[in-house]
Amino acid sequence: MNMSGQDNDFREIIDDENTDTSSDVVEVTGDTTVDPTVADANKDGQDDYEDICYICRRPESVAGKMIHIPNNICICNDCMQKTFDSMGGFGFGSGDNASMNHIDFSKMPNISMVNLSDLADFMPNMPNSQRLKKKKKKEDKQEAPVLDIKNIPPPHKIKAELDEYVVGQEYAKKVMSVAVYNHYKRVATGTMDDIEIEKSNMLMIGPTGSGKTYMVKTLARLLDVPLAITDATSLTEAGYIGDDIESVVSKLLAAADNDVEKAERGIIFIDEIDKLAKKKNTNQRDVSGESVQQGMLKLLEGAEVEVPVGASSKNAMVPMTIVDTKNILFICGGAFPDLDTIIKERLNKASSMGFMADLKDKYDKEENILMKATVEDLKNFGMIPEFIGRLPILFSLEALDEDMLVRILKEPKNAIIKQYQKLLELDEVKLSFTDDALHAIAKQAKERALGARALRAIIEEFMLDIMYEIPKDDNIGEVIITEDYIMKKGGPKIVMRGAENNLIEG
Fold first, then answer.
1. How far is it, in rounded angstroms, from Cα 42 to Cα 51?
2. What pLDDT, in 10s, does the model give residues 403-419?
3. Pairing of strands 320-324, 304-308
4. Spatial separation of the C-alpha atoms in residues 92 and 11, rounded to whole Å
5. Which domains occur in the chain, in start order?
6. What is the Cα–Cα distance from 274 to 452, expressed in whole angstroms?
7. Which of 117, 149, 349, 405 could serve as 442's disulfide partner, Cβ 3.0–4.6 Å?
8. Any bridge partners for residue 229, and if so which?
């Protein structure tokens, strides 16, 4: 910046041959910015990401063309204009300098007033996790369509895929298959005959460990779409400690590798949604309950929201971008404890009139009472009507009985037993279970009331000693898990190599 001469103001472009401006000059020719440091970054594939303004943290898709200065620093036109406006407020904008207002800085041949490269000392390079991928050009989209209706698997194929990983839950799998198929037909076609098709957001009710999360993960893998799983208990109203409501979209954006277009056709699964129920008998502000339900309405119905990139909350050092939730599929799940009591009260009230009235304890022992849940029951539970209305598809999962737990142990592609058998195969040892042992494991899991999650914990307990001792002895060829071993009345049966008929009780 030349402050010594009276004839030159700070706008003057220095063309003297003896003046070295290589450290602070940026040459702009047309729409391209030439900077050696930026060129080096592009060599490493950084040109796949959008430029981010170091001052306002907006990407170029929002802020427009950036001005590049040395050390990979980018500044948008708005922030550069505000800088000169503020300089005018301190006396630099009077007289001839007043013409600095409303300059298109992207068309300036060079900038030599201030060595802005000093910003690099306190503005570190931004990681890729906080940078957005550039949107594809129209010609690229034509070559590789984002979503083709012909490639969307029909409901029966979606259910068949779910059958390979999820045991039982026939009704739930059928409902999800149809809903997902209709949703992505809507995404692929936009509208049909100018009739707007509403989103197929889902609310599934099911006991702990019944397979809610597992089914959603399987769906996302089958459809090859990004998936974000979040816990509703971490969400709070904006301005309070916890994750902002928009953080659920931020997680989806991260799962899509910061590709906005890919994220806008993904799936968001919000677990523990029952924890957002309205608090009863309290006069305090419900910042993590009803307020979160209200805040999520715009996300569920479809709206353009400003979300932080690479963070769970908005702050000055995190870039922001706009994501349209119109085509994002929202699936909410929860165990809804005590909902069964509300359902029983409604059913008992309806059937307790007249001479043919049912007994009051008719529904007390019914395990699948949640299958009878209605919208009115959810309102009584504490979910606001507006929230439920944006989740049009409501269904419940069955409670897992002993037979279903046994099937879960051995039938799915990645069944728990198959995983341990694979582990022992690596030690050249065969692992097998008797039918009585499987039922004993299922019975214990049923008693713990944790659903399928209890199976892994139980197997871990009795497999610990086996997996500790087997590597000690190379002569062990097979281990048979028996009911007595599960019930802690004896040990497993050991078969030594070359002596298949010689069983050793552990």
1. 11
2. 989 999 988 888 889 99
3. antiparallel
4. 11
5. 27-126 (no CATH), 149-334 (3.40.50.300), 402-505 (1.10.8.60)
6. 20
7. 405
8. 269
